[in-house]
Amino acid sequence: MAAEVREAEQIVNVSDSESGQSDFIETEIPGKSNNSLLVASDEFDDISYEELNNGALQAAPMGTINALVKRKVKRQHSIIESDGRQSTVSEDDIANDVENESSEISGDDTQDDNLVLESNLADLSLQESGSLPLEIPSPHLISSTNSETDYVNSIEWKQQKKHIFILSDSGKPIYSRHGSEDKLVTIMGVMQALVSFVADSDKDNLRSIVAGDHRFVFMTRDHLTFVGVTRGKESTQQMLLQLTYMYNQVISVLTLSTLTRIFKSHRNYDLRRTLSGAEKFFDNLLNLMDVEPGLLLSSVRCLPLDSAVRDNISQTIVQYAKVKDLVFALIIAHNQLVAVVRMKKYYLHPMDLHLILNLINASESFKAAESWTPICLPKFDAAGFLQAHVSYLDDECHTCLLLLSVDIEAFYVLSECKAKIQEKLKKYNALAAINNSLRRNSYSIQQCSINDLRHFLYKARSTSQYTSPELEAPYNTKEEQERLFGLYYYLHDRIHTSGRPLKILFHVGPYETLLGWVTPGFELFAVFGPLVTKITAIHAVNKLLRWIKKEEDRLFILSSVTF
Amino acid sequence: MSGGKVDIKVVLLGKAYAGKTSLVERYIHNRFLGETVPYQNTIGAAFGAKTVTVNNKNVIIGIWDTAGSERYEAMSKIYYRGAKAAVVCYDLTEKASFDRARFWIGELQKHEEGCRIYLCGTKYDIVEENPALRSVDEKEAKALALDVRGEVYVTSSKTGKDIEKIFINIASDYMASKAAAAQKEDDEEIVKLRRSSKKSNCPACKS
């Protein structure tokens, strides 16, 4: 049958008339929840050049933080009124603030409004004070040596599997994944020439070039050009997603308002100056993309925990971090979500959560002491910073608590909250439970007890969370893991190809059989041994869905807790 | 930011890689990781506190270890606002870091007059081993400190040289200025009393 035909492919038809024969049982969707804490306002299918060009993606959310700050100002205002005896000066100040705000409501596109917004958020934004000094002592310039020049000309550099470059409108190098971007001025100049040639000649946008086994993908947004070069299995759209993550990372460090302001006043600006120290976030994000399927799926993995323990943790946060202006409180352990508490009406976008995970993952410095750092979440508000109180709850630095606030002065208050939460979680043995779960390493595919099922990714769409078992033999070497990822890229791309989206795909490859199944409720990508037939595979995924359903309380966060 | 249980707010300022975090690590945890752990730039700012005893009194020093990246420059105001002392660090082996120290001193004078400045040349162990690597002149540092009525320290987080001394001095300077302020307040009160007694005398004289 199908198994004998190597590299054969069948699209299982599940149109209404035939659904009876297809043997797919529509079980209740595992991991489904109407009460979601992560809300993906856009997903993979929305990230395309069409959207990019007609501006749908450009319209980054702005003003969320401003609205929250406004609320804070109003609150202070009312306190003062009730107090009644405040000096007139401060009342005037606040009256001015309120006036400023009313003018902002009209719209946030014009520069005037942006200025007002910035003045109001002066503390929260990275305004360059005064003129920009011209001396540019970039650490790269100092450290670059001849060996780096050699490196970018070497075969080794050319054979890197994936390159990512960021350059400015004027062709100035900003970042390169491999090798020092300083030594790549020429090649970046060529890239800029290609992009601007297409843009100038036909008022068109350069999307991608395929040359041999290399794929070059271009994305231009807000004065920056992102270029991805891969010889892996990623499709153009998947590369575009990765470039979008890179763009989001830039915004997360700078905010969109700062980025646009910088390039508005200095087209030639060397952005590396402002980004210095942030290179590790780009590096780490790219490494994360190679090993973490969550970024491809726009969803996050939760640390498996008994729902009672998880509820206990969330309730502890709610109880001891009930502080005004606290927007999100989350606990993260090894790139997995343990608990999230959010302010009513505000949701975390999975892409933003990935940036938070990356912030924690990329930096060792949080392990030394409690930190207070600005972070912009582009899907939450691209215009301003939230302030993050970051601390580890255990001595081994596995479990990290993040408290995200719009109040820049809240450090000491949040520090006290952290101490209380830490004390209570210790008392309730919740930290021990987290550590136990971390030590047990998620779960083995054996636990699902399905023959010939080797690995799978299951994403619950309504909650933007996914689950997958540990990588075990044969996927226990780096090469095999890369190959497995390639299979997932392939399956994901075939199913989501914008021209011809599929619901189900059964693919027989030389070493394994793949089954992808997408419904409005979930996405499932399963990898079987090579000799599995279509019927067996279908039975297996039905069984798998039942197993996930049974375990859903442990694998997913199904209830959303608010302050 | 002010508040909490902290008595003295101290802020560390200086160019990236000047050794601010190492200095705090040495002071608070009495350890030096520079040789085992690769360099990690600070993100935002990190906070640490330590209690010191000066004149038999316990004083809590809250230390803000700020990020050196220029990106955080505008944000640094929130970290040094209300600080009683600033340890402005520069790398003895890097001229550019001293220029950056000048910049920070300028900022502090402009925005935070009440903040005492402690100029601190770091990585002395390197200079000690090879004096040729020193690129910031001692005289220059002293002159700069004199300008702002601050003090100069030369430290090594690796050996621990003079690290403790800075913070002990910060604490005792703070106590001294606090005592002086209290004294001044007392004096003012005495003046008031006299004045008011005069006033009450006046109508009595007239009558």
TrEMBL record, chain A:
On the tree of life, the source organism's domain of life is Eukaryota
Compositional bias ranges of the Polar residues kind: 12-24
Using the UniProt annotation, give all residue ranges assigned to the region (Disordered): 1-29
Location of the FUZ/MON1/HPS1 third Longin domain: 452-552
- Pfam families membership: Fuz_longin_1, Fuz_longin_2, Fuz_longin_3
Residue ranges annotated for the FUZ/MON1/HPS1 first Longin domain, each copy included? 162-285
Any GO BP annotation? vesicle-mediated transport
* Record-linked InterPro entries: FUZ/MON1/HPS1_longin_1 (IPR043972), FUZ/MON1/HPS1_longin_2 (IPR043971), FUZ/MON1/HPS1_longin_3 (IPR043970), Longin-like_dom_sf (IPR011012), Mon1 (IPR004353)
Residue limits of the FUZ/MON1/HPS1 second Longin domain? 324-421
A GO cellular component term found in this entry reads: Mon1-Ccz1 complex
PANTHER family registered for this protein in UniProt: SAND PROTEIN-RELATED, VACUOLAR FUSION PROTEIN MON1 HOMOLOG
Q: Which family does it belong to?
A: Belongs to the MON1/SAND family.
What this protein is reported to do is described as: Plays an important role in membrane trafficking through the secretory apparatus.
Name this protein carries in UniProt: Vacuolar fusion protein MON1 homolog
Q: Which organism is it from?
A: Lymnaea stagnalis (Great pond snail)
UniProtKB/TrEMBL annotation, chain B:
Lineage, opening ranks: Eukaryota, Metazoa, Spiralia, Lophotrochozoa, Mollusca
- What class does this enzyme belong to in the EC scheme? hydrolase
* Enzymatic reactions: GTP + H2O = GDP + phosphate + H(+)
Q: What is its EC number?
A: 3.6.5.2
The protein's matches in PANTHER family, at most eight in alphabetical order, are given as: PTHR47978
Species this chain originates from = Lymnaea stagnalis (Great pond snail)
Q: How does it assemble?
A: Interacts with ZFYVE20. Does not interact with the GDP dissociation inhibitors ARHGDIA and ARHGDIB.
Whether ATP-binding counts among this entry's keywords is no
General function of this protein: The small GTPases Rab are key regulators of intracellular membrane trafficking, from the formation of transport vesicles to their fusion with membranes. Rabs cycle between an inactive GDP-bound form and an active GTP-bound form that is able to recruit to membranes different sets of downstream effectors directly responsible for vesicle formation, movement, tethering and fusion. RAB24 is an atypical RAB protein that presents low GTPase activity and thereby exists predominantly in the GTP-bound active state. RAB24 is required for the clearance of late autophagic vacuoles under basal conditions.
- GO terms for biological process? autophagy; protein transport
Record-given protein name: Ras-related protein Rab-24
One of the record's GO molecular function terms: GTP binding
Under Gene3D superfamilies, the record lists: P-loop containing nucleotide triphosphate hydrolases
Family (UniProt): Belongs to the small GTPase superfamily. Rab family.
Top-rank lineage group of the source organism: Eukaryota
* Cofactors: Mg(2+)
Under the heading SMART domains, the entry gives: RAB, RAN, RAS, RHO
Q: What is one GO cellular-component annotation here?
A: autophagosome membrane
Q: Where in the cell is it found?
A: Cytoplasm, Cytoskeleton, Spindle; Cytoplasm, Cytosol; Cytoplasm, Perinuclear region; Cytoplasmic vesicle, Autophagosome membrane
